[in-house]
Amino acid sequence: MFNPLVHSTGLSYPHRIVSSAWIEHVPFGMTIVELMQPRLLVELGVYLGVSYCGFCQAIDQLGLETRAFGIDTWEGDAHSGYNDPAILDELRAYHDPLYGRFSSLLKSKFHDALDCFDEGSIDLLHIDGYHTYEAVREDYSSWLPKMSSRGVMMFHDIRARLPGFGVWRLWEEIEARHPTFAFDHQYGLGIAAVGSEIPEGLAGLFAAPAEERSKIRLYFSQLGQRLSARLLTDSHDARLRELEALLKSQAPDQALCLD
Length: 259
Ligand SMILES: C[S@@+](CC[C@H](N)C(=O)[O-])C[C@H]1O[C@@H](n2cnc3c(N)ncnc32)[C@H](O)[C@@H]1O
Hints:
- The protein has a single domain, classed as Rossmann fold, CATH 3.40.50.
- About 40% of the residues lie in helices and about 15% in strands.
- The protein contains seven helices and nine strands, in the order αβαβββαββαβαββαα.
- The protein has helices at about 25-35, 50-60, 85-100, 135-145, 165-175, 205, 210-250; strands at about 40-45, 65-70, 75, 80, 105, 120-125, 145-155, 180-185, 190-195.
- The termini are far apart.
- S-adenosylmethionine binds next to helix 2 and strand 3.
């Protein structure tokens, strides 16, 4: 059985709180690192680094010997939008001093990075790139040989039924093929044990009966919601500061206080 009193890393407050449709999954992302203690962790699709820095924070806090790689072109795509190249510089400035001793950000197409990894070497792979059925299916099948015997893949957006999104369709195929656990909140996150064995720390999760699964889902979605609330408060504060500056520029002689 998964016991949050024993595996409590997901209760830690994430340091990297910036805009992301993954923010509510960070508590589970940190927990799976604790449960699996992966030797090699890889993420496909880093963007501003919310999920990836959550994994790295857990590795750091737990003092694990995990090696981690985050792969992205940082160019964006038709679903997540196209990026300002400066986002990678900002992410490196944040990430490198904190996590550079065990983690590397690789600027590459996913497919071009395959040769950097040995067959059977990756314990935990998070797939969060382009979300068409064809693209995510290609990510899954091209990276599958790289997974270790205790390998676990995570997929974001398994519940996103938006035009052009097809992770849900691949997820139905994966559920028929591998032991799985799925979260429904924030577009859904699927976890699949794709190797020949289920990692010991995850056995309780995959074996959980329906009632226990519901409670695990509720626990992690509630932990995630406080992070969305924080993002919302931060964006309201930023908007308020902008309005304050605008008013001051238009009426510089008047005392203004919007706090
Ligand atoms: C949804 S975002 C990742 C979100 C991130 N995991 C987070 O926590 O917010 C998807 C990213 O995948 C990248 N991407 C999409 N297809 C790619 C490919 N074939 N190779 C490299 N990067 C890709 C995009 O540049 C984009 O930054």
